[in-house]
Amino acid sequence: MSATLEETNERVRQASAWVTRLRETVGQVVVGQQALIDRLLVGLLANGHVLLEGVPGLAKTLSVRTLAAAIHASFSRIQFTPDLLPADITGTLIYNPSDGKYHATKGPIFANIVLADEINRAPAKVQSALLEAMQERQVTLGGEANPLPSPFLVLATENPIDQEGTYPLPEAQVDRFMLKVIIGYPTFEEERRILDTMAFTKPKMDVERVIELDEILHARAVVDSIHVDEKIRDYIVHIVFATRDPAKYGLDIARLIEFGASPRATINLTLAAKAWALLNGRSYVIPDDVKAIGPDVLRHRIIPSYEAEAQGKTTDQLVRTVFDHVPVP
Questions:
Q1: Which one in 55, 65, 78, 215 has a CA-CA gap of 20 to 30 Å to 321?
Q2: C-alpha span between 167 and 83 (Å, rounded)
Q3: If DSSP codes are grouped into helix, strand and coil, which group holds residue 50?
Q4: Which domains does the chain possess?
Q5: Model confidence at 307: pLDDT above 80
Q6: Residues 169, 119: Cα–Cα separation, whole Å
Q7: pTM tops 0.70, yes or no
């Protein structure tokens, strides 16, 4: 048994070796935002899509572009606008007069990493074009299913302060994102470094490709082998159930929650915790892993009630209350 544990630990050490290298490479361009970079890595390792929310100018797009540039992977950036059409994303059938047949022309969605920039600026018809791709990892063109490349990751950004010309994502689509990351302002020291880098010197915007796709796919296989104890599994399920039936856990917040988290939250919280454990060089999940990544998994899966909105209660506050009251194993 000890030999097996030692073997697993060695696999984790080898698989996580490129994490430091990738962090350093991205850090050559992106100042600060370490939490954002780590959560992008969780999405990469756990095969989950990531939704980034923050005001303009916080390096959301720059972080995704830099991460993609450091990986030997195909990359597409789609700027979502109100006049965008579904075919602009997925592709369409083009008639060829020479042979009298229609041929599938693949859209920018056919890439390993897809940046959906300002995804809430496109109407629902365009947003729904991503649903099949995000869930099934395929796109149907002319009745034929076209598999997307592996790995396939959608990293979407949205601006929370604009109201005009924006279209809120439907709950079914938001639930397809493994993580929703809220990006805050940099610290004083970080902003001073940004000033010195961007305003007084020629900023470095290009990075070397330091990671191969095979390394990522191998790391994903190692993530699958990360051990999750039975007590940790129960803890994760209790966390999710506490969002559905708070009174059972001694929480007086039932009136503040319209709908709790779905079973997809249970699955994604487990996968994300395993990826977080690997990022920290461990072959097993501890409760702190669940707590660290839990808010990013749950904040977009809990629907607050009208009373919660009237009281100014955010989903982050509700999630924090749940984690504070559910017993830790």
A1: 55
A2: 12
A3: strand
A4: 18-213 (3.40.50.300), 226-325 (1.10.8.80)
A5: yes
A6: 8
A7: yes
Nearest CA to 222 out of 3, 51, 76, 9 is that of: 9
Q: Which single residue is written with the structure tokens 């780590």? A: 38
Alpha helices in the chain, H assignment, sequence order: 2-15, 17-27, 34-46, 60-69, 87-90, 124-127, 129-136, 171-174, 188-199, 213-224, 230-244, 263-279, 287-298, 306-310, 315-325
Token duo for residue 153: 């990751």
DSSP 77: E
User: Phi/psi at 259 (nearest 5 deg)?
Assistant: -140, 140
Exposure string over 12-38, b if 16+ CB within 10 A, otherwise e:
beebbebbeebbebbeebbbbbeebbb
Share of the chain above pLDDT 70, in %: 95
Distance CA 232, CA 286 (A): 7
Q: Are 232 and 287 contacting, i.e. CB atoms less than 8 angstroms apart?
A: yes
One DSSP character per residue, 126-163 reads: HHTHHHHHHHHSEEEETTEEEEPPSS-EEEEEE-SS--
Closest by alpha carbon to 178, among 277, 297, 36, 44?
A: 297
